[in-house]
Amino acid sequence: MKRATWMVVGVVTVGAFAAGCGGAPPPSEEGAHAAIRGAHEVGAEGQPQSAYYLQLARDQMASAEQMTTRGQVPEAKRMLLRAQSDAELAIALAGEGHDRDEAQQLGQHINDMRSEQR
Predict the structure, then answer these.
(1) Does some domain include residue 11?
(2) Distance of alpha carbon 91 from the chain centroid
(3) 48 lies in which domain range?
């Protein structure tokens, strides 16, 4: 399966879990870590925009851990939510970038075929 398909499956799965519980679950370190791992797995580092949001998510994760050790639990939960959201945005942007790259490659292939026919 293509990466974009797996990305859609992952996003739908996360959405189904959130909707199935009657609302979004409270932010957790596991959820943020999972979103960051997902962004890494779909190649978010390879696209400038998605790499930016993935780095934001990693930085926010580190900040949340520091806040937790200082006893700032409500602030840490908000930071975890931001980290998870930015990682999910990185996933979406990575998929968009991969789709755009595939479309450009296909366009180039079509142009090459047209040139050969002349």
Answers:
(1) no
(2) 2
(3) 25-117
Domains of the chain: total? 1
pTM of the complete model: 0.64
Query: Mind listing the pLDDT tens digit for each residue in 51-103?
Result: 999 999 999 999 999 999 999 999 999 999 999 999 999 999 988 755 666 66
Q: How many CA atoms lie within 13 A of 47 on its CB side?
A: 23
DSSP string, 39-93: HHHTTGGGSHHHHHHHHHHHHHHHHHHHHHHTT-HHHHHHHHHHHHHHHHHHHHH
Using only C-alpha atoms, what is the Rg of the chain? 18
CATH code assigned at 36: 1.20.1270
Tell me the three state secondary structure of residue 26: coil
Residues listed for the chain: 118
- Contacts of residue 8, Cβ cutoff 8 Å, sequence gap at least 6: 95
Question: Residues 7, 5, 106, 43: is their CA dihedral positive or negative?
Answer: positive
